[in-house]
Every structure is written in structure tokens, then in C-alpha cells.
Write a structure and sequence with these properties.
Mean pLDDT: 88
Order of helices and strands: HEEEEEEEEEEEEEEE
Radius of gyration: 17 Å
Shape: globular
Oligomer: single chain
Low-confidence stretches: 1-14, 16-27
Distance between the termini: 44 Å
């Protein structure tokens, strides 16, 4: 059983403002079956992860070190679209750490790890990067966009909600936040076939209510 990092009543009140589905009881918050976690730092361990649990709808993460999270059956190739609905809780001490999803994952538990990732951060910016073994080249640097909602944009809500998406078409890969296209890249420059999952950097408190892949018409 994973220990919760903050009181259930406070969490329930915050989530209830965003989700119509009733929350499960505290004892039902358990680590997702079959999921794997890989940290960026070689010496990091799951002892440093505050919380990673199934919490319908979706999953809740209170992160320690930066990491990727995935289930083995989460694979997408060819022409497809991935959507992620994610809720940001109040950033720790105003930190602007990044979160989002990755695709095209290969050898995720090995030395030749490879994936493409699409992240946003509080303050309304996005980035597209690659992981290639020990290297992490930037494909599109941090760029501001009005479609990205930050903590200050939540209004009276308890969370800031964003929907991230990528459309991997035959010749082009398009990136979206809240239905606005924020970037497009030639598919030949972005490896997109493989495992997908989500990526959460340091000290973030997130609820990922949906992460799914679906076919995309050619």
C-alpha cells in the first residue's frame, strides 16, 4: 500500500471540484498493476517517490526525482493520436517543473533508452525533446503559448487543467495543447513508434485523468 503524502479530506475536496466520478476510499489507492517507473538519475529509487497510485479516473502522482511512467501494453505506431488530460495542483514553493507525455519509447529499462517527449510547465510554456541513451537533445526549445493554462489561470478551481495531444501522421507530427496546435515537425525527424506513457519532473503534484492512443486517419 502506498502512503499518501497529504490528508485524504484535502485531496478529496480538491479533486471533487474537477471530477464528477466519486473518489474511492483511501484503502483503494494502490500502485497501478504492471506499471514501470524509470528515473533520470541512475541512483534514484522509488523510495523517493511520494505517491504513484491508481485513482479513478486515472492516476495520481506526487513526484520525487524526474521519471517516466508506463505500462507494457501501452504501444502506438503508424498514424495515431495520443491525448493526455492532466490536472496541476499548487506547485511546490512556486517551482516551474515540467510534465507531459512521451511516445516512441524503446529499451526503456536499458542503456539504449529512446523516446520523444512533449512537456508543459507552469507559466504557459512547452518543449519537445528526445531521450537517446545518456543524451537529451532539444527538438523545440521552451516556447510560450497562450493556450497553456498555469496555476495562476485556474480561476476559482483547485487545479489547472490542460489537455495535451500529439498527432503522428505519415509525414508530420503535430503537437496540441487545449485544441490549439503549438508545433509541427517532420515525422522523419521525430521517432514516434513504440511505447508511450507520461513523464513527471521533480516535486510535482498531478492527477492524470486520461492518457490514451487512438488511430488517426492517414
Amino acid at each position: 500500500m502506498t502512503r499518501l503524502a497529504f490528508p485524504i479530506p484535502l485531496l478529496a475536496l480538491a479533486l471533487a471540484s474537477s471530477f464528477a466520478t466519486p473518489l474511492p476510499a483511501a484503502q483503494d489507492f494502490e500502485r497501478p498493476d504492471g506499471w514501470q517507473v524509470r528515473f533520470d538519475e541512475p541512483g534514484a529509487s522509488e523510495d523517493q517517490l511520494e505517491m504513484f497510485v491508481s485513482m479513478p479516473p486515472g492516476w495520481h502522482v506526487t513526484s520525487g526525482p524526474a521519471a517516466i511512467y508506463w505500462a507494457p501494453e501501452m504501444e502506438a505506431s503508424g498514424n495515431y493520436r495520443i491525448e493526455m488530460e492532466v490536472f496541476l495542483f499548487e506547485p511546490h514553493q512556486g517551482m516551474r517543473e515540467a510534465f507531459g507525455f512521451f511516445a516512441g519509447g524503446r529499451d526503456l529499462d536499458g542503456d539504449d533508452i529512446e523516446y520523444t517527449y512533449f512537456l508543459i510547465r507552469d507559466g504557459g510554456e512547452f518543449i519537445v525533446k528526445r531521450r537517446e541513451g545518456a543524451d537529451a537533445p532539444t527538438i523545440r526549445p521552451w516556447t510560450g503559448h497562450d493556450a497553456i493554462l498555469g496555476w495562476a489561470d485556474r480561476g476559482e478551481g483547485a487545479t489547472a487543467k490542460n489537455i495535451l495531444a500529439v498527432e503522428a501522421a505519415r509525414d508530420e507530427v503535430r503537437f496540441f495543447v487545449n485544441d490549439a496546435q503549438v508545433a509541427a515537425l517532420p515525422r522523419a525527424e521525430v521517432a514516434m513508434d513504440g511505447i508511450y506513457g507520461f513523464r513527471v519532473n521533480h516535486m510535482l503534484n498531478l492527477h492524470i485523468s486520461r492518457l490514451e492512443a487512438m488511430p488517426l486517419d492517414p
